[in-house]
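REQUEST ID: PR-0412
SUBMITTED BY: lab tech R.K.
PRIORITY: routine
TASK: structure prediction, single protein chain
INPUT:
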Amino acid sequence: MSGTNPNHVTTGLWPGILLPERAAEYAPQLAALPADDWDWLVAESQRHSLAPLLYTNIQHAAGHLPAAGHAILQLRAIYRHATLVAMQREAELRRVLDAMASNGIRPTLFKGAALAYSVYPTPACRSMGDVDLWVTHTEMSAAVAALEQLEYRVRENPQRPHALTQYTDGEIQMMPTRSGQGLVELHWGVFPGEWLARSATIDRAAVRQRLRTAVVAAHEVSVMAPEDALIQVAVHVAIGHQMSQSALRSLVDIALLAEDGLDWDVVANRCQEWRVAAVVGMVLSIAYELLGSTALEAPAARLGPSGLRQRVLRHYVTPEAVLAQLQLSSTTSRFAYLLCLTDRPSDSLKLFARSVWPESEWLHARYGSARLSDRMGHAVNALLGRI
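STATUS: complete
OUTPUT:
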């Protein structure tokens, strides 16, 4: 019963019902849904890891949904389990932050963990596969050691050696070894990757200067300014994941951030200065088409791609593809898609050239040397779409 249901999509019920502000609008439609459609909604929300949020949005109306009895029971059970998982996750996060504080480190919490405690109704409504912590370059060794004291272990990936992840502002993955632990990623930066390094001009120092203080798991942590957080989520889902994997969940993140209140002039100016306007505009447009958030309507119209740019990008990513969870990230088309997302033609040319013939520093970080054989082997793989 997975996949898109044209009746739900065209009425806006799914996935618009995922936004708390819109849930009340759908009361008449929800009351008229037959049991089979409720089963479909439960299955779809589970497939996108958003069932706890769906339950939170509709539980107040449960007594007025005559055909939803079985579905409500399913969603309630899912939400209760998610609550237990969130409590376990928070307890472990407290231990992680304790260890960091003992080493004089106050990390920046971002992506799922930060959003779960800020824009979602409850932390249980935002599932996550890991905890993302941004530390400074000088703190990284101490942060790794702190987690090793908790019996986390560094994951070594031959395809992404640590020299490369540091060079591209990536992350070190700390793998769990005990029950109750989860993956923790220690990030060198919050805007990682070759695409951003070669095509954009992110002011990373300014992002750090704008950090704010929040209390999470009984600890003071840093979080990004909301405008920076929205840009980061949009860039992450569009560039890091090529609108694949949990894309709908990321679009809900963005809609909830928007509804929490943003300065859209700041967002627009920052996107243009950083040369990520095409990326953020595309994500906002798809988020608005799918979720219908009033907070996204004007920004999507202002920043969204138009004309030829939109037609080209829709060849790769559509709202329907997001709902169907099509995996652009696993295809050779992703390279062409990434080239289409740059703000300037010259950025696309530079990205293509450097992807095929990288900087010597990048080659050293990736392969351990910059010999001609390394260059040629990399160039062949790049041209074949195997990067």
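NOTES: The mean pLDDT is 90.
REVIEWED BY: pending
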